[in-house]
Amino acid sequence: MFIDIHVHTRDQRGPNRYGTDQTYATPDELIEMYDEVGIAKAVILPGVNPECAHVVQSNESAIEIAESYPGRFIPFCNIDPRMIANSPDADLSYLMEYYRDQGCPGIGEVCANLYFDDPLMQNLFGHAEKTGMLLTFHVATHQGGIYGIVDDLHLPRFQKTVETFPELRFLCHSQAFWSEISGDVTDETRGGYPKGPVTEGGKVPELLRYPNVYGDLSAGSGYNSVSRDPEFGYAFLTEFQDKLCFGTDVCAPSNRDNVLINLKNFMEAGLAEGKISQEVFDKVSHQNAERLLQL
Q1: CB proximity list for 12: less than 8 A, separation 6 or greater
Q2: Contact indicator for 206, 240 with CB cutoff of 8 Å
């Protein structure tokens, strides 16, 4: 059994995703893909941050999709830190509590292109902690021309945020996060998909030792972090078996040939070859998600 902790879908196609010839997969297309490979359910992350939205998707859309396909989708709400008043004093708990009561156990994917320690971001984190919401976010390397919360090499601003909000559960994602699995990451490589053996001293293992930090293994970035050095990757899955969640980040029907199956195949190969145990496989594939989402 697999639970996908990170996916995007739209019930109305709209325009093609910018720079591509495809739209997001519809729920029906996504379920067809899932049924082919054995993924039971998924978390829908609506797109509200303008930095990464060619069409803004409402939280209501994600909730309606989940209601239309019982047992297959879990909706997250997405709260932009500039909402309500574009102020660090905005009462974002008002929105979070509303959507939590509508069945959303978390917030995300947060992609606002502000620094982690920007007062607007700190306000968002504070209200998310207060309301007990899980928070999925995308890390960026800089401001402008990109989406994601901004941090420097080795993620010092995020680490400080983790310490400032110890009760807020962070579900970490993106190239600029997962490239930090290796100690040799640089400013030049951290925004991509570094290859080759993982070296000691990576920031990701250090961060995952905080009780409120979890890893979202979706997309090319999550898969690359464990597959670039398979011996390390399987040991990493084992060491952090209670902190990692399977995910895909399917964004289009064409993803059936890559992110839909890459991590799944890697995990299944590791299980078959004795590189990871059944216990590790079960935790990462679905049990950790069930616990975090309170399913």
Answers
A1: none
A2: no
pLDDT above 90: residue 55 = no
End-to-end CA distance of the chain: 14
**Long-range contacts made by residues 257-263, C-beta under 8 angstroms, separation at least 24?**
258/220, 259/218, 259/219, 259/220, 259/223, 260/33, 260/37, 260/39, 261/37, 262/220, 262/223, 262/227, 263/217, 263/218, 263/222, 263/223, 263/226, 263/227
Q: Which residues contact 279 (CB under 8 A, 6 or more apart)?
A: 241
20 confidence band (pLDDT: 50, 70, 90) = confident
Give pLDDT tens digits for 98-128.
999 999 999 999 999 999 999 999 999 999 9
Between CA 211 and CA 189 the distance in angstroms is 28
**Buried b vs exposed e over 275-284: b needs ≥16 C-beta within 10 Å?**
bbeeebbebb
Task: Tell me the H-state helices in 81-201.
Answer: 93-101, 119-131, 156-164, 175-178
pTM: 0.97
**CA nearest to 48, candidates 18, 8, 89, 1:** 8
**Closest among 34, 15, 100 to 253, alpha carbons compared:** 34
Multiple choice CATH, 2-293, 3.20.20.140, 3.40.50.980, 3.30.565.10, 3.40.1400.10: 3.20.20.140
| 4 within 8 A of 246, measured Cβ to Cβ | yes
Domain range annotation of the chain: 2-293
Angle at the Cα of 60 (from 49 to 175), degrees rounded to 5? 35
Q: What amino acid occupies position 7?
A: V
Given pLDDT bands bounded at 50, 70 and 90, which one contains residue 59?
A: very high
